[in-house]
Amino acid sequence: MKSFVENYPQFKKMSGTVSKHVTVVGELSRLVGNHALLAISECQQELVCGSDHSANLQRIRQLVTDPKVREIDAAVLVMLYALRHEGHPNTDLKGLVSALNKRSVGDRYLKLLSSLMDYGGARARQSDLFGTQLPQDVSGIRKRFFKGLKGVDNVYTQHKPLLLETLEEVMKGRLREGAFPYCGNAPSMPPGTKPQHVVVFIIGGATYEESLAVHQFNTKSSNTRVILGGSTIHSTASFLSSVEAAMEGVPRKTLRL
């Protein structure tokens, strides 16, 4: 009895902590179920990592018309589709926009779709964001081939940010000077030397996924440390707001709705 009385405050504290965790997890589980977030996440991952246009389009049609899916999530799916399958001969972007209109999605998101295509569409990008271009070197072709054979362990985490590929190119000394020009004189490093410290600063903002990628990169690398910075850390809502602000007053070029 004496031991129980002495340890009771600690027991009560731990009990309260567990209760809070259970409450938080329960609320997260409720939100995931109520808004079909797992289905949305899987669709987003397959959309940006896969190449089956027909399957992607069919799945997005189902989710956009699902009443459980929130307005912003439905709009983002259509935005990703527009970026991923821009120029595809069988694209049905107009049909998806029509589906958004039928569920009374706000005009703000429709205007954002147009703005996003000018902001980050194929004409505005300088790199192979979705890995659709054929690699120029043998190692790149081999890497993509074995990646396809290996498959995916977790459909919810299969996407890897472009930043990770950029860091790998830094380690190999293969960054394209056209996309990553030097400021001042080019640094002179002996052949085969890897940088020990790399600072990445993303103007416009970094994402949580990019932060995780840098953490995992640092964990695997024993000789190089990468520091990630940015003007902000983005959520979906904050990124869309930044695109909206950047394209305000700019005439539309790519897409007119």
UniProtKB/TrEMBL annotation:
InterPro entries: Sec1-like (IPR001619), Sec1-like_dom2 (IPR027482), Sec1-like_sf (IPR036045). This is Vacuolar protein sorting-associated protein 45. Belongs to the STXBP/unc-18/SEC1 family. It comes from the Eukaryota. GO terms for biological process: vesicle-mediated transport.
